[in-house]
């Protein structure tokens, strides 16, 4: 496969979205090598708690040990291959016991016991043979409570991989007076009928909202105005929707910042720092915890989304996180999570819940309109109506400084150009 024939600086071939061979290579070269988000440590608070997910094509789970360490293991019994955790989450008690023949394992994956052990006398089955224990992920690390694993024993550290995108987790956690967040243990799961890259491109695509989300934005702003006229003020969550009705020119004034490895930031546009009593109470708690100067630094970062390429979209000011688990060229599972700021007022959590339900959940009019576009994009790209996908908007007008690309215009397709720069590097990396 010659990647340079598929990706040019200003356009890509439609095959990158539709081809099974390319998808398989993405799994080997990207997803099964880079640091992949497993979950938040508060998803598994007690020893024996587990949470199952995929890294690339590999079914995995994270489990809290008796020593309180979190480990990430392959979801496969070393006996005859049966998955050890059949549910998405739960508690296995003091050991992992396979449902087929009851081989059991310590919570760190080591073989604990085999029924009728003497039947294996003289064979290679023994507690000392690593093949008889559950295979762990090559590397596990965490950043501010967010747990990641890599199936590659070598490569950049988690800190190096995240680079500037670390700010996603700092911006979320620093809004808690305790510096920590806690997962809300329900997660929407949506299977998108489209390639994972369409989602990643769309996250920082400021050209689409005033078209795709116009009907929602306009309807919400009418109601918002009416409530304002009648009562003097409309609840903040109307603004979550009405902001989508911003004009092209307004979106164009929002900058995107595009980092190495495909990560990126869409700068804030919603004005999410109102001066109502709830916000002021929250800010007072932060000042008490960190002092006025630090609080100001934390609250003025001006972020809307942070992308951790190739699978994460974090909306830190509203404690939202969406994670992709690609299933095939035209099928992508997305997990939609949100978080509580530890020690912050309940009203601040309600704000996050409103956003979760109104914008990110599968029930919203916002997400639904995006999903429809991506499905239709997949259909169009699978057709023979043309071979190339255009990323020409503001091509040649990007500002690059130390490997960081500034879009200058919010609607610039610098985002996609930068993502494909990273994609090509991953796909051709001979490691
Ligand atoms: S397959 Fe797990 S014990 Fe047999
Ligand atoms: Fe959208």
Lay out the secondary structure.
Layout: E1 7-8, E2 11-13, H1 15-18, H2 20-31, E3 36-40, E4 49-55, E5 58-64, E6 70-74, E7 89-91, E8 96-97, E9 104-105, E10 111-113, E11 139-143, E12 146-150, H3 158-162, H4 167-173, E13 181-183, E14 188-192, H5 196-203, H6 209-212, H7 214-231, H8 236-242, H9 248-252, E15 256-258, E16 264-267, H10 277-290, H11 292-299, E17 303-308, E18 312-315, E19 320-328, E20 331-341, H12 346-360, H13 365-382, E21 388-390, E22 399-401, E23 404-406, H14 414-428
Antiparallel strand pairs: 1-2, 2-21, 3-12, 4-5, 4-7, 5-6, 8-9, 9-10, 11-12, 13-20, 14-20, 15-16, 15-23, 16-17, 17-18, 18-19, 19-20, 22-23
Helix pairs in contact: 2-14, 7-8, 8-12, 10-11
The structure holds FE2/S2 (inorganic) cluster (FES) and fe (ii) ion.
The site of FE2/S2 (inorganic) cluster has 9 residues, from loops.
The termini sit apart by 17 Å
Count of the separate structural domains: 2
Which cofactors or ions or other ligands sit in this model?
FE2/S2 (inorganic) cluster, fe (ii) ion
Q: Helical amount among residues, as a percent range?
A: 25-40%
Q: How much is the average pLDDT?
A: 95
CATH class bucket of the largest domain: Alpha Beta
Number of helices: 14
Find the structural class using helix and strand composition.
alpha+beta
Under CATH, the homologous superfamily of the largest domain reads: Naphthalene 1,2-dioxygenase Alpha Subunit, Chain A, domain 1
Protein model, in words:
The protein has 431 residues and is α+β, with helices and mostly antiparallel strands. It has 2 domains: 36-150, Rieske [2Fe-2S] iron-sulphur domain (Rieske Iron-sulfur Protein); 164-428, Naphthalene 1,2-dioxygenase Alpha Subunit, Chain A, domain 1 (Alpha-Beta Complex), CATH 3.90.380. 32% of the residues lie in helices and 24% in strands. It has 14 helices and 23 strands. The chain has helices spanning 15-18, 20-31, 158-162, 167-173, 196-203, 209-212, 214-231, 236-242, 248-252, 277-290, 292-299, 346-360, 365-382, 414-428; strands at residues 7-8, 11-13, 36-40, 49-55, 58-64, 70-74, 89-91, 96-97, 104-105, 111-113, 139-143, 146-150, 181-183, 188-192, 256-258, 264-267, 303-308, 312-315, 320-328, 331-341, 388-390, 399-401, 404-406. The strands form 5 sheets. Strands 13, 14, 15, 16, 17, 18, 19, 20, 22 and 23 form a 10-stranded antiparallel β-sheet that branches. The chain has a 4-stranded antiparallel β-sheet with strand order 6-5-4-7, with no helix packed on it. A 3-stranded antiparallel β-sheet has the order 1-2-21. Helix 2 (20-31) packs across helix 14. The chain binds FE2/S2 (inorganic) cluster and fe (ii) ion.
């Amino acid at each position: 496969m010659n990647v340079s024939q598929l990706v040019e600086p200003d356009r890509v071939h439609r095959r990158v979205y539709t081809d099974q061979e390319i998808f398989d290579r993405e799994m080997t070269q990207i997803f099964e090598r880079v640091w992949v988000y497993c979950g938040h440590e508060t998803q598994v608070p007690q020893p024996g708690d587990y949470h199952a997910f995929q890294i690339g094509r590999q079914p995995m789970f994270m489990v809290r040990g008796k020593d309180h360490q979190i480990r990430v293991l392959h979801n496969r019994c070393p006996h005859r291959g049966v998955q050890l955790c059949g549910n998405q989450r739960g508690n296995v008690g003091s050991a992992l016991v396979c449902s087929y023949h009851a081989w059991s394992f310590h919570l760190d994956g080591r073989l604990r016991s085999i029924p009728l052990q003497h039947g294996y006398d003289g064979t290679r089955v023994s507690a000392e043979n690593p093949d008889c224990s559950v295979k762990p992920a090559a590397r596990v690390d965490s950043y501010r409570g967010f747990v990641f694993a890599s199936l590659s024993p070598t490569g950049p550290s988690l800190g190096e991989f995240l680079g500037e995108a670390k700010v996603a987790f700092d911006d979320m956690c620093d809004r808690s007076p305790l510096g920590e967040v806690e997962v809300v243990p329900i997660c929407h799961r949506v299977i998108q009928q489209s390639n994972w890259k369409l989602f990643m491109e769309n996250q920082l695509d400021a050209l689409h909202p005033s078209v795709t989300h116009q009907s929602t934005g306009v309807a919400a702003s009418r109601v918002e105005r009416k409530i304002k006229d009648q009562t003097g003020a409309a609840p903040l969550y109307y603004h979550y929707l009405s902001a989508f009705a911003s004009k092209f020119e307004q979106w164009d004034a929002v900058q995107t910042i595009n980092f190495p490895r495909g990560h990126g930031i869409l700068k804030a546009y919603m004005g999410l720092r109102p001066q109502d009593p709830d916000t002021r109470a929250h800010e007072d708690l932060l000042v008490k915890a960190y002092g006025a100067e630090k609080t100001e630094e934390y609250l003025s970062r001006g972020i809307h989304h942070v992308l951790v390429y190739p699978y994460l979209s974090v909306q830190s000011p509203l404690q939202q996180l969406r994670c992709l688990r690609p299933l095939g060229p035209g099928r992508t599972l997305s997990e939609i999570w949100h978080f509580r700021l530890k020690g912050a007022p309940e009203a601040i959590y309600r704000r996050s819940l409103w956003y979760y339900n109104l914008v990110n959940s599968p029930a919203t009019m916002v997400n639904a309109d995006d999903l429809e576009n991506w499905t239709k994009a997949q259909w169009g790209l699978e057709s023979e109506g043309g071979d190339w996908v255009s990323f020409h908007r503001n091509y040649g007008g990007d500002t690059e400084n130390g490997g960081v690309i500034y879009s200058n215009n919010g609607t610039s397709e610098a985002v996609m150009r930068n993502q494909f720069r990273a994609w090509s590097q991953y796909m051709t990396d001979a490691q």
